[in-house]
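Regression test case RT-17, inverse folding.

Input:
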């Protein structure tokens, strides 16, 4: 059985880049990322220390690696790449080992 792969990218933004501008630039990549083979889910968060996390779930490691290779080449990602402090960027691919089911709807 193939297990899904979680891509975890952590980074900080360059000085002068606002959170709103970065989120807006990221939203412009939705159709590109969503069209890639094996895409399942993507979330973006920011910690109190200013470190961001882009969390993407892929069907398998090959899909994650293909996406990682295509991402910097896409026109829609150029703004994002300029906004990120490249010296702070760390990317990992991890095998998802377990997922908790959503809580039942209250009503």
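Golden output:
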């Amino acid at each position: 059985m193939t297990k899904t792969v979680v891509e975890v990218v952590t980074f900080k933004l360059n000085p002068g880049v606002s959170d709103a501008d970065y989120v807006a630039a990221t939203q412009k990549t939705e159709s590109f990322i969503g069209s890639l083979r094996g895409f399942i889910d993507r979330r973006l968060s920011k910690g109190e220390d200013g470190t961001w996390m882009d969390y993407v779930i892929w069907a398998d490691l090959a899909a994650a690696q293909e996406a990682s290779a295509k991402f910097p080449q896409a026109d829609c990602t150029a703004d994002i790449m300029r906004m990120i402090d490249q010296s702070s960027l760390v990317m990992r691919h991890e095998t998802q080992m377990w997922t908790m089911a959503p809580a039942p709807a209250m009503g």
